[in-house]
């Protein structure tokens, strides 16, 4: 499994990221030593996918501490951590895992700083331990999601997915793709259709690459082919990831996911979202409140540096859309599966299990 986010220990530790902008052509890792570079890596999608963004960001305050001078105090350290969290929170708006991870680090730092004798070294140790815990928990959550979902993929099934919710999008083996990896471990053969996922082609570049590496039968299709495949009876189920799930189950994911859910309803195809509890935002009631990232027009007007639209043409480029809970057959989490998700069922799963 590719490791999208790795921490390399040392006197000054370094964050190692797979540069996902270069895949599948080149497998290159980035060594990130400061928060400015980390912010850029997240903003430009070198590291992407909701859980991976959260895990990578968790190491940002650690890098900020390491950048302080030799005479820095614990007060300077806490200030640097809070500033790093505020700065990294501006990198991308939709995936709630980013804010969840940064909040965890900030709270941890504030808590340990209540000890009057705390040294800067101990502060560093405490927040590095918290970042490592976030990463380790993500790896575990990914596995558990796969185990909870694998039975949904029957022998010979046709599975459609959108964008990339694989190892590259998490610290572990992915969310939607984890379900596939676990079904494969059970010895089942099935066929995956990967939407290419315009405009940045995460499906064609990343999902197809991951599944091919894993020896899973994968076929890339253009996004506009999905409905026809459903009509032809080639799709038995759809599984995607999510970037933020509201309290009522409305789920933001890569632009195009909502259209798939409508097509799925029309053709009687079950539509699943696979996501860890760090992707739920119970502070918001419904999907209308999820902030949707707007990205630059060049992503739509150019392909590999070549213009595919006339210069100066107006472009609308939202990176995500929201699928209504009523279109979701079930949400697969590390705690179990919520069928027909609604506010009560989600609260019960997340708070009582
Ligand atoms: O813009 P991206 O590539 O970060 O968008 C990623 C997605 O939409 C994924 O489906 C989502 O983050 C789930 S990843 C487990």
UniProtKB/TrEMBL annotation:
Annotated Pfam families: IF-2B
SUPFAM superfamilies per record: NagB/RpiA/CoA transferase-like (SSF100950)
Sequence positions that bind substrate: 48-50, 92, 202, 253-254
Pathway: Amino-acid biosynthesis; L-methionine biosynthesis via salvage pathway; L-methionine from S-methyl-5-thio-alpha-D-ribose 1-phosphate: step 1/6
Coiled-coil annotated spans: none
Top-level taxon of origin: Bacteria
Biological processes per GO annotation: L-methionine salvage from methylthioadenosine
Residue positions of the active site: 243 (proton donor)
Top-tier EC class: isomerase
Keyword Amino-acid biosynthesis: yes
Keyword terms, alphabetized: Amino-acid biosynthesis, Isomerase, Methionine biosynthesis
Enzyme Commission designation: 5.3.1.23
GO molecular function, one term: S-methyl-5-thioribose-1-phosphate isomerase activity
Family annotation (Gene3D superfamilies): translation initiation factor eif-2b, domain 1, Translation initiation factor eif-2b, domain 2
Record carries keyword Amino-acid biosynthesis: yes
Annotated site residues (Transition state stabilizer) in this chain: 163
Catalytic activity: 5-(methylsulfanyl)-alpha-D-ribose 1-phosphate = 5-(methylsulfanyl)-D-ribulose 1-phosphate
Family classification: Belongs to the EIF-2B alpha/beta/delta subunits family. MtnA subfamily.
Cited function: Catalyzes the interconversion of methylthioribose-1-phosphate (MTR-1-P) into methylthioribulose-1-phosphate (MTRu-1-P).
UniProt name for this protein: Methylthioribose-1-phosphate isomerase
Provenance organism: Anaerobaca lacustris
